[in-house]
């Protein structure tokens, strides 16, 4: 698959992010993806995550293309430039959080996270197959009917070990530790597996090893790698969920879901006036 994720978004599609948004709060899905309302603010955590992702993609691209990683100083310079661009051109005013109260603190936090990762990247002896790998497939109902929608997504990092086994990696920045139960049930890795199977990277119904590559936003940042596996049962369940979400969207079922997610929602004013 050579198309960029941006190009794939031009087709009628669902992504894991859209599916997760609908499951978390279908009214937010309506504001964001149906009405296309501009967000009221941009989360600083979102900016941090995107710049760290871009920096890690550059790090592993260097290994894939040149056989060695870019120097830490060069990669940190790339990170600083990326952060400066993100902060200068946000879609909406930046809302800073507890981790970083202003732009300087956000920049410094990201540097600490990236330095911690470069000190302990792991994945020794593994081949880099792809970074930010864009994938697409027709969304098929559980009874085999091909819908008009495509499932799209981009795998952060795809590695191959010395025995030829693939490992799908998703990069995360997080303050709190992830539980193994949450990781084993996570839908994003199931979506990755389904897309990799359809695009020929993994045999149909073959289990796939996956990893959450987490950089913890602590006073002293640390890197944690959480391994899990996705089987045919996981991809079948994800496909049923994706189709159920599509049915809800087509039936125009959009309702508010009040909870923890409301505090950082970029559509609070729209929700209050709904």
Q: Which whole number gives the mean pLDDT?
A: 95
Enumerate how many helices there are, as a single number: 10
Kindly provide the radius of gyration, computed on alpha-carbon positions and rounded to a whole number of angstroms: 19 Å
Q: Beta fraction of the residues?
A: 15-25%
Distance between the termini: 41 Å
Characterize the biggest β-sheet: 6 strands, mixed
Name of the CATH first level of the largest domain: Alpha Beta
Structural class: alpha/beta
- Give the ordered list of helices and strands: HEHHEHHEHEEEHHEEHH
Query: Helix proportion of residues, in percent?
Result: 40-55%
Shape: globular
Low-confidence stretches: none
Number of domains: 2
CATH topology of the largest domain: Lambda Exonuclease, Chain A
Number of E strands = 8
CATH architecture of the largest domain: Alpha-Beta Complex
Task: Give the SSE layout.
Blueprint: H1 5-8, E1 13-15, H2 16-24, H3 26-34, E2 42-43, H4 44-66, H5 72-88, E3 94-95, H6 103-119, E4 127-140, E5 146-160, E6 166-174, H7 180-185, H8 187-198, E7 208-216, E8 222-230, H9 232-250, H10 268-272
Parallel strand pairs: 1-5, 2-3, 6-7
Antiparallel strand pairs: 4-5, 5-6, 7-8
Helix pairs in contact: 2-3, 4-5, 4-6, 5-6, 8-9
């Amino acid at each position: 698959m050579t198309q960029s994720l941006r190009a794939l978004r031009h087709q009628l599609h669902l992504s894991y992010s859209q599916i997760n948004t609908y499951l978390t709060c279908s009214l937010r899905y309506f504001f964001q993806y149906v009405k296309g309302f501009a967000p009221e603010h941009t989360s600083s955590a979102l900016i941090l995550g995107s710049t760290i992702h871009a920096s890690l993609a550059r790090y592993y691209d260097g290994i894939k293309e040149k056989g060695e990683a870019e120097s830490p100083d060069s990669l940190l310079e790339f990170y600083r430039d990326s952060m400066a661009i993100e902060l200068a051109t946000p879609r909406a005013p930046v809302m800073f959080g507890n981790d970083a109260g202003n732009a300087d603190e956000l920049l410094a936090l990201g540097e600490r996270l990236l330095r911690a990762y470069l000190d302990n990247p792991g994945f020794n002896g593994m081949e880099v197959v792809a970074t930010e790998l864009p994938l697409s497939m027709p969304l098929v109902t559980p009874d085999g009917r091909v819908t008009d929608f495509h499932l799209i997504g981009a795998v952060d990092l795809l590695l191959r070990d010395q025995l030829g086994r693939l490992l799908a990696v998703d990069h995360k920045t997080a303050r709190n530790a992830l539980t193994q139960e949450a990781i084993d049930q996570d839908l994003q890795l199931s979506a990755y597996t389904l897309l990799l199977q359809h695009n020929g990277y993994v045999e149909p119904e073959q289990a796939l090893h996956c990893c959450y590559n987490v950089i913890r936003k602590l006073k002293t940042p640390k890197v944690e790698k959480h391994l899990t596996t996705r089987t045919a049962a996981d991809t079948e369940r994800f496909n049923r969920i994706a189709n159920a979400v599509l049915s809800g969207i087509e039936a125009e079922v959009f309702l508010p879901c009040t909870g923890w997610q409301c505090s950082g929602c970029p559509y609070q004013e729209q929700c209050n006036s709904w």
